[in-house]
Automatic annotation (TrEMBL):
Pfam families: MDMPI_C (PF07398), MDMPI_N (PF11716). One of its GO terms (cellular component) is plasma membrane. It comes from Actinosynnema pretiosum. One of its GO terms (molecular function) is metal ion binding. This is Maleylpyruvate isomerase family mycothiol-dependent enzyme.
Length: 245
């Protein structure tokens, strides 16, 4: 996916999440985020969107952006505030040079990092909203295969690195992930004390410890620890132990 794909898809996922929030009981539990209600979910995403504006515009040599704004306590004011912050976020992502260096939690990266990150932040929480609204009746194919495959790639290449920076990896093994409908495969190598290494399969025989196979959508859900129809063979304990932010 390219920068324009990130921003377009971000708008789509936001619209879907926003519609779910508008129709929901605010006190309803979010089963995929234990302890959260729909209102907590909405406030979290709104605050994250507001903070990401600051992060995207923060120079790469800065320690970290200011803490995120909390937003109004009043619910109706919060929704208007969230809409304004989201519009501002999209404006920044669409008008700034996507290659401009920016601060991120994994070191300096181009500004497009934040378009990708907020796309997947919003999409995964849209999925949480679906679970809150539909209970166990969430469609198995919710996300386009290119979006879902990119979400798997972002988790493997970025979010695992972030977790290793905070707490060094203690896992050992090789995990192969296949997303058949997206024609994408990844090989994840884990060595205790070392940053996770991710690469594409080159067709050579791999002595993997675990294999995860399914649609890109199912893999996307699995790596973010959401209910999934992906099939895991081999060391399921290794897959379950992968750190989630």
């Amino acid at each position: 996916m390219e920068h324009a794909d990130f921003t377009r898809s971000l708008r789509e996922q936001y619209d879907a999440l926003r519609a779910l929030i508008a129709a929901a009981d605010l006190s309803a539990p979010v089963p995929t985020c234990p302890g959260w209600t729909v209102e907590v979910l909405a406030r979290h995403v709104a605050r994250t969107h507001a903070w990401s504006i600051r992060a995207a515009l923060t120079p790469p040599d800065t320690d970290s952006p200011p803490r995120p704004q909390e937003g109004p306590e009043d619910w109706s004011e919060l929704l208007a505030w969230w809409d304004e912050r989201f519009s501002e976020l999209v404006r920044v992502l669409e008008t700034e040079d996507p290659s401009r260096p920016s601060w991120t939690f994994v070191g300096p990266r181009p500004l497009t990092f934040w378009a990708r990150r907020q796309l997947h932040e919003t999409a995964v929480h849209r999925l949480d909203g679906e679970h809150a609204a539909r209970a166990g009746d969430v469609p198995p194919l919710l996300f386009p295969s290119d979006l879902a495959a990119d979400g798997v790639d972002e988790y493997l290449t970025t979010m695992l690195t972030r977790q290793h920076m905070n707490k060094p990896n203690g896992l050992s093994g090789r995990v192969v992930l296949h997303a058949a409908d997206a024609s994408r495969s990844w090989l994840l190598r884990l060595v205790p004390g070392e940053a996770p290494e991710v690469g594409a399969l080159d067709g050579a025989a791999i002595d993997e410890d675990a294999t995860v196979a399914g649609t890109a959508d199912s893999l996307y859900r699995l790596v973010w620890d959401r209910p999934s129809h992906a099939v895991v063979t081999g060391r399921g304990d290794l897959v379950r132990a992968l750190p989630r932010p």
